[in-house]
Amino acid sequence: xxxxxxxxxxxxxxxxxxxxxxxxxxxxxxxxxxxxxxxxxxxxxxxxxxxxxxxxxxxxxxxxxxxxxxxxxxxxxxxxxxxxxxxxxxxxxxxxxxxxxxxxxxxxxxxxxxxxxxxxxxxxxxxxxxxxxxxxxxxxxxxxxxxxxxxxxxxxxxxxxxxxxxxxxxxxxxxxxxxxxxxxxxxxxxxxxxxxxxxxxxxxxxxxxxxxxxxxxxxxxxxxxxxxxxxxxxxxxxxxxxxxxxxxxxxxxxxxxxxxxxxxxxxxxxxxxxxxxxxxxxx
Amino acid sequence: xxxxxxxxxxxxxxxxxxxxxxxxxxxxxxxxxxxxxxxxxxxxxxxxxxxxxxxxxxxxxxxxxxxxxxxxxxxxxxxxxxxxxxxxxxxxxxxxxxxxxxxxxxxxxxxxxxxxxxxxxxxxxxxxxxxxxxxxxxxxxxxxxxxxxxxxxxxxxxxxxxxxxxxxxxxxxxxxxxxxxxxxxxxxxxxxxxxxxxxxxxxxxxxxxxxxxxxxxxxxxxxxxxxxxxxxxxxxxxxxxxxxxxxxxxxxxxxxxxxxxxxxxxxxxxxxxxxxxxxxxxxxxxxxxxxxxxxxxxxxxxxxxxxxxxxxxxxxxxxxxxxxxxxxxxxxxxxxxxxxxxxxxxxxxxxxxxxxxxxxxxxxxxxxxxxxxxxxxxxxxxxxxxxxxxxxxxxxxxxxxxxxxxxxxxxxxxxxxxxxxxxxxxxxxxxxxxxxxxxxxxxxxxxxxxxxxxxxxxxxxxxxxxxxxxxxxxxxxxxxxxxxxxxxxxxxxxxxxxxxxxxxxxxxxxxxxxxxxxxxxxxxxxxxxxxxxxxxxxxxxxxxxxxxxxxxxxxxxxxxxxxxxxxxxxxxxxxxxxxxxxxxxxxxxxxxxxxxxxxxxxxxxxxxxxxxxxxxxxxxxxxxxxxxxxxxxxxxxxxxxxxxxxxxxxxxxxxxxxxxxxxxxxxxxxxxxxxxxxxxxxxxxxxxxxxxxxxxxxxxxxxxxxxxxxxxxxxxxxxxxxxxxxxxxxxxxxxxxxxxxxxxxxxxxxxxxxxxxxxxxxxxxxxxxxxxxx
Amino acid sequence: xxxxxxxxxxxxxxxxxxxxxxxxxxxxxxxxxxxxxxxxxxxxxxxxxxxxxxxxxxxxxxxxxxxxxxxxxxxxxxxxxxxxxxxxxxxxxxxxxxxxxxxxxxxxxxxxxxxxxxxxxxxxxxxxxxxxxxxxxxxxxxxxxxxxxxxxxxx
Lengths: 283, 774, 155
Prior knowledge:
The complex is a heterotrimer of chains A (283), B (774) and C (155). Helices cover 38% and strands 23% of the residues of chain A. Chain A is an alpha+beta fold and 283 residues long. Chain A folds into 3 domains: 8-50, Uridine Diphospho-n-acetylenolpyruvylglucosamine Reductase, domain 2, CATH 3.30.43; 60-165, Uridine Diphospho-n-acetylenolpyruvylglucosamine Reductase, domain 3 (2-Layer Sandwich); 172-282, CO dehydrogenase flavoprotein, C-terminal domain (Enolase-like, domain 1), CATH 3.30.390.50. The termini of chain A are far apart. In chain A, 52% of the residues are buried. Chain B contains 20 helices and 29 strands. In chain B, the strands form 7 sheets. In chain B, strands 3-7-1-14-11-12-13 form a 7-stranded mixed beta sheet, sandwiched between helices. A 5-stranded mixed beta sheet of chain B has the order 9-17-16-15-10, sandwiched between helices. Chain C is α+β, with helices and mostly antiparallel strands and 155 residues long. In chain C, strands 2-1-5-3-4 form a 5-stranded mixed beta sheet, covered by helices on one side. Chain C starts with a strand and ends with a helix. Chains B and C meet through helix 1 and helix 18 of B and helix 2, helix 3, helix 4 and helix 5 of C.
């Protein structure tokens, strides 16, 4: 068995207790949901794991909006009728293809955000859906997801307790594309798009592209080119081309930069076309 | 086709006799043993692709609490051997030392530590300090053949290397007729060069050995191996101990596919046990399996075909193969030769043929035996070239094959000239149902409807492709298998066979053959296999030999036992022994009287003229009758992303008589899916410093349940008169199909020919773009 | 540290290392049906049921199984009778080397306990985290279909 330096495993019963341990022990401590990534990527510095499973953060609530507790597993989300009813079940569609069913029984939505994998399918989806996270960072705060990552990039480690998705506007739809070698594989490139129409034109466009191989991020240049336009073939082609030109792609052992840029164009194009078809049936 | 008799047990889908233990998770695998005081052994691998070990200091490691033993080149036997599990004398160079003072690939063995726990062993590895003199790595065949290239095997005690100074392990050059004249006579010439990649078997159980001392002090190696007897001999040779002091036992093993036709870890475990007196367990982690086990031989193969333009009959076939055999030469010569010996005879109409090949050392991970064994690499360009030739001739690809493939009653001069080592054995084909395979396969895939239509469905464009192939059944005149059968007084039998069941079900089908001859249900045949103390010799599971060779040994042993039973029964039944038969657990006389087998054995064991009813028989095959296969695939290509999806794969296979059709189908299905991975997604990536960049199943992608097409295997039986119950073999041939079949289907769909595997979306898209510009 | 859990119906209190995974604990306790394939969650050979759900025991912290019900392949047999999934694997040729088999069976049992009439796609998806190199999956999928029919009482 692979050896580990972990010497303590605690399961606090309050968020304050969890936070106190993480603060006190610094980089030698890590919070865990399912524990998959905490175990797989444990470094010799990691001495104590803090299981958040005792904090009652496994739930899916909300009427029109969606409030998902941080330790809710992917399997629980897939089986939740609330999640299934949100924006045509887009999250179920995406989650059903993430990792493997065995991992989906353990992996948590908070954990996946905490791991911040560059190939994550969940992150671009939540960015496109304008997700917010409720975090504990000395006290509770609600932040846009992108801001959570910005804070993380500065070395802070706010503790996610809940993911919030806003009420989906009536004339809106979301699409997702990812490209990988086999089905049980991480993305070479992925993209999530969200469009809200008003009087036949794009009132809001949110486009997140990830796996470039950098972690998913919103693409303002791409979004701007769609805002205010009709969602027709010509606009989609134009937007897709901008996506190809604008993303920060690099070569790695999974794919070349050039291919990733190409996939960004194809992915955005296909997502938007699918969204257009969905919106058509609604309209 | 010779008439196939009616069988009662052969031809039935009997449940695997080890099946119940496997579905209930019984502790039947190597590492499922738990002996007290077991030492855990970890191996230190080289960080460099090519280096000399200048200095080693293991004192800190040795001093650590819980460390029982540290092995390096300084305290282990120095003789060279091959790790290839082949018949003696092995056709592979003796270029491997147990621990060498030179390392030749990243991950090459530097030291081993045996300790009370894995944790301590890993910590002790880190405490070993090694000073290396780095040498120039050799990371490609071109680098290896360059003038002034480093000599990878510059030791003076290696044997069997063709030309070590030029890094050439093996060189094969075989001529039939006059190839130059052959091409001059041809109206149409087609030439193609194809490249195959580093790929790995990835058995779900990695290499693992558990060694311990028997109560009488003999060394027992409980190992995940395809070659127990070769392992015993090679360990004896390596450690310098008598063969009779070693017992090798193969329990259930978790897949091999060729990577366990190798004596990889047994010497280290054995030596640890001999030196410490304690049991020792070595099991490779998945990462170590990728880096330091065995792989496919990457090959560049050129095929040139010359044909008559009137009817497409081949006049000349030339194949030139350059094989990368990595840091050590195990299986280098034989895999190379097989690229030609298992492919060229298929098209025996050509009077002129030429096979030329070399296997070259590089300082890269070590290829070895892998299902298909060179034929896989050879069929890619051969069946691609045939497809191209068909197009040039404006002939249906199936029709071109029909006009050229070998038939029953025919021979090919290649059989005699090219075997697995050098020469082969002359033979004629006695069973071949390839025509029916083509008929059935074409119909099932919908060939006539689909070929050439390029049907579009959204972003996907569809195409169909086909290929045919043959393999062999064992290595003629070289392989030997034996079986012992003894009878028990309740009418049951013990079948003792050296033959090695890697999960293939050979215990079951060999039991079926014996049960058929002796007229008993399979439950009355107690099979024990692969224990060098108890079971008679068998070369092991490779070269598709088990059904054909071991099966014939079993059949012969059963017939001898049957004759003993008849000799006892004849006077009791007042019958001529020749007028007796066995069925339903009894001896039947032609006049109607019967005697149960239990009664027969009771008499022989306890009552009169007592003796043990038992017999041993052997088989050395005189030929290697090929199974034949026709493959058909429908693919869809996403023209925007280059992604290739196989939708439907049909394999119509003539394996002779299928002893157990369900198990035979299972062999084909597994080989096909493995071949699809090899064709589309599997690729070991090597860095510019010779390091494997993706040594994990996370990064090296094999097919899963969501990746497989509709797979249809149709067994098209023939009756092979030289085979046990008419059987040939089926273990390897299936894996050769997907690459050329899919390549040909991609061509049908897109008009683009791919000549480098795997056919990744990037490669497909690239080829499509270049074709559209051209 | 100590944990208390139920393994195949038997309540056990066991000493564990805080950082160890359930796979090592189970094999140390003699449950050899739980296999080591990759120790990274990529192959599924180590699958066990955790409160009825198939999980990679190589990824699960043993401490996280405290208070849970774990079922390994050894726990599927009842009074000498095989589980219908085990029977079906034997019957349909779904077992070759048998190394991926325990994990594959566990994932199938998970599926059928919640979805008695799965489509072929649902079966494929449920087994998509269990890799096999011997069978090509064809007869394993057929075995699950067969087991589902038997469990529904269709045959």
